[in-house]
Design brief:
Elements: E1 4-6, E2 13-15, H1 28-31, E3 39-43, E4 47-50, E5 55-64, E6 71-78, E7 82-84, E8 89-92, E9 95-98, E10 102-103, E11 108-116, E12 122-133, E13 143-146, E14 150-154, E15 158-159, E16 168-169, E17 211-215, E18 223-224, E19 229-231, E20 238-239, E21 242-244, E22 280-284, E23 293-300, E24 307-308, E25 353-357, E26 369-372, E27 379-380, E28 464-468, E29 480-483, E30 490-491, H2 712-729
Parallel strand pairs: 4-14, 18-21
Antiparallel strand pairs: 1-2, 3-5, 5-11, 6-9, 6-10, 6-12, 7-11, 8-9, 12-13, 12-14, 15-16, 17-19, 17-20, 22-23, 22-24, 25-26, 25-27, 28-29, 28-30
């Protein structure tokens, strides 16, 4: 511990453990008013240099050539960095001072301490003051002096002399490998000049003016796509052109021949295609008939959509024209089978017409025929001429009743009666059919049977009745007409009950209960057709359900429409329990859930089985429950002693300790060992030993709390009070 003395002869204090704050003004506060010429304080050097963070060992020598002094001390401060204590010194408030008065030898003493340089470069000052003391704890005889400042320079030995942003160091460790050339720095670009511009220890690597090279692993002369490597000289395994999309296969490169193999050999991004060496021609098939147009071709590995390998289509605009088509007669005279011949010029033509030679040019041909697409000159499409040498004879010629010549080639003449029906040919519209004559009966057979010039008129014997269909629904109303074929606006089916509404007809779907008979069956309100309309039928979709029908109980159906539940056979308002209801006896209307019940009569009229013999619902039937009207009284209930109620039904309410003596006679009903009351007399109690001594003689102390001075009756009265107290405690 340092000592502090107050000297009566001097206003100063002496600090044997050192004092800070003296490096500028000196030690006059404790060791004399002014500096002494006989005393010197000297740093071991006047200047020094350190690198950032470096620790320098410093010294200060204090000497005195004057009065006799025996010890010395110091105070040192620095403008930056950190002072570190040495021998006989300590650091206080950042300054180094002596930790105790240090003895001088030969009139001098040297202190050592350290200084740790800051990280920031610059010039820093160390100031100091030294004193010499005679040890009398007073300022008289002491001396002091200020030391010349020590200048410390913090310098890492590195500078950016060329101003390129990077420093070069004296020991060659700086980032800038040439601090005299701003073009040489770690961020500089390497060029082909044999100089290490980027200071990485190598020259001319990845130079900006170098030639780009790409790796050529398959040695096909083409480099792989991707980043290039620049070099001043050629690189083994590298080439100066890229674009190889597969540098593992020499056959794949930009100048390779593309082939039809599913591989992009020429690295153009497309697989196979028209430029493939082995591509074949495909021809446009515009009409989709699988035959192509030879004039429109494209080379490909696989047929493009709308192209085919065939080139034999002679008309690619018509799907019916191709080499496998059949030649047919057509108005455009097309060459359908592409054989160079069309219609009649092609022996394979189909669809020809038969033509008849018409030598007399009367429009009717004879037996000579020609099968061609276009009618030949001198031919006609109508056969039947019985004399092709005279135009007076043909099926269209006119005959007279008095000329026996068969001009119209029908095998009969107007003069004769060929069919023997009593009418000569000129009066008979068909002299080959005896059933046809002016007196014939018209029938529906597409023949003018009565020769009146009309066919199948309404008076035909077998004409049908047709019904007007005004609403166009396919069903007729009441208005009729006769005809062989259906007249416009008429149909063969009748029964339309409303021919003004197309939605009403015999085959329409009935919309029930809308007052409209859509299907014309006379019924709109009896859907199940059981004879009961919907307003009286409780289920008009079930024919077996109607008022008065036989009802089968418990089948889920109210067949007789009585309105009661199908599961309530006794009509007491509750469904049978066996069918999900509440009635436990559906044959008796006095038995249902909630009905009045007489307990213990063996009949569960309220459908609650549990309460027949357990009225209070405490889980104990009458035979075990001593009070079946109170659920708090039952076997196992907690007994409330001495309240006159046997809660647990064990027959006991006043003998809590179960010793057989009721509380009004037992002086302690909680202790089965005490059964009677001590009356306090001195006679021998034969019923119980003395409570205290156990002897047969009562000592009269009232050991169980009875009145020891009163009579027996008084004791009993006190015992009654005790019993009441015990009841309250209980």
């Amino acid at each position: 511990m340092s000592l502090l003395f107050l000297l009566a002869t001097s206003p100063a204090f002496a600090y044997s453990a050192g004092k800070t704050g003296s490096t500028t003004s000196g030690c006059g506060a404790c060791h004399g008013a002014t500096a002494s010429a006989s005393t010197t304080a000297t740093f071991g050097a006047t200047v020094a240099t350190a690198e950032p963070g470096e620790v320098l060992v410093l010294t200060m020598r204090i000497a005195n050539s004057g009065s006799a002094t025996s010890g010395a001390g110091l105070d040192v401060a620095a403008s930056g960095g950190t002072l570190v204590a040495g021998s006989n010194t300590r650091v206080t408030g950042g300054e180094v001072t002596h930790s105790a008065t240090t003895a001088m030898s030969g009139g001098a003493v040297t202190f050592n301490f350290s200084w740790r340089a800051p990280t920031a470069e610059g010039t820093y000052t160390v100031r100091g003051a030294g004193n010499a003391v005679n040890g009398d704890r007073a300022s008289s005889g002491d001396a002091w002096a200020l030391a010349s400042n020590l200048t410390l320079t913090v310098d890492d030995g590195c500078d950016d002399l060329d101003g390129d942003g990077y420093e070069g160091c004296d020991d060659g460790t700086g980032a800038d490998c040439d601090d005299g050339d701003a073009a040489i720095a770690p961020n500089a670009s390497e060029t082909c000049d044999g100089v290490d511009e980027d200071c990485d220890g190598t020259t001319d690597e990845s130079p900006v003016d170098g030639t780009p090279y790409w790796p050529d692993a398959d040695e096909d002369g083409w480099g792989a796509d991707g980043a290039s490597v620049r070099s001043c000289t050629a690189l083994a395994g590298y080439v100066t052109i890229d674009g190889d999309c597969d540098d593992g296969q020499a056959a794949i490169r930009p100048d390779a021949d593309e082939t039809c193999d599913g591989v992009d050999e020429d690295c153009d991004g497309a697989v196979d295609g028209p430029g493939s060496l082995d591509a074949v021609s495909f021809f446009r098939d515009a009409d989709g008939d699988s035959y192509g147009d030879a004039s429109v071709a494209t080379p490909e590995c696989v047929a493009p959509l709308g192209y085919t390998a065939d080139a034999t289509d002679c008309d690619d605009t018509r799907g019916a024209v191709h080499p496998d088509a059949a030649e047919v007669c057509d108005a455009l005279d097309l060459d359908e089978d592409c054989d160079g011949l069309s219609d009649d010029a092609d022996a394979d033509v189909t669809g020809t017409s038969r033509w008849y030679l018409d030598s007399d040019a009367d429009g009717y041909g004879a037996a000579t025929t020609a099968d061609t697409c276009v009618v030949p000159s001198g031919y006609t499409a109508v056969p039947g001429d019985c004399d092709d040498g005279s135009s007076a004879f043909n099926p269209g010629a006119t005959e007279s009743c008095d000329d026996p010549t068969d001009y119209n080639c029908d095998g009969s003449t107007g003069f004769g009666d060929g069919d023997g029906d009593g009418f000569v040919a000129c009066l008979d519209c068909d002299d080959g059919d005896a059933a046809v004559s002016p007196s014939g009966t018209e029938a529906c057979n597409d023949i003018d049977d009565d020769c009146d010039g009309t066919v199948d008129e309404p008076d035909a014997v077998d004409a049908l009745t047709w019904y007007v269909d005004a609403d166009g629904d396919g069903w007729g109303g009441t208005e009729t007409t006769l005809a062989c074929a259906d007249p416009e606006g008429y149909v063969a089916t009748a029964s339309d009950c409303d021919d003004g509404d197309a939605s009403v007809r015999p085959d329409a779907a009935e919309a029930w209960y809308d007052d409209v008979d859509q299907d014309c069956d006379g019924n709109d309100d009896d859907q199940d057709r059981d004879g009961f309309p919907a307003d009286t039928d409780c289920d008009d979709r079930a024919a077996a359900t109607f008022p008065g029908a036989a009802d089968a109980w418990y089948d889920g159906v109210d067949s007789d429409c009585a309105g009661n539940s199908d599961y309530d056979g006794d009509a007491d308002g509750q469904d049978s329990a066996s069918h999900g209801g509440e009635d436990c006896d559906d044959a008796r209307d006095d038995i249902y859930l909630g009905a009045p019940d007489t307990p213990y009569d063996g009949v569960v009229t309220d459908c609650v089985e549990a309460d027949e013999y357990d009225v209070d619902g405490d889980g104990f039937a009458l035979e075990d429950d001593c009070d079946d009207a109170n659920s708090a009284i039952r076997p196992g209930a907690e007994e409330v002693w001495y309240d006159g109620v046997d809660q647990d039904c064990d027959g006991n309410d006043d003998d809590q300790d179960g010793d057989g003596v009721a509380a009004d006679l037992d002086c302690d009903d909680e202790d089965a060992g005490v059964t009677t009351c001590d009356t306090g007399d001195t006679a021998v109690d034969t019923d119980v030993p003395d409570e205290d001594t156990g002897s047969a003689t009562d000592d009269g102390d009232g050991g169980c709390g009875c009145d020891t001075t009163g009579t027996g009756s008084a004791a009993l009265a006190l015992l009654g009070l005790a019993a009441v107290a015990r009841r309250r405690r209980a």
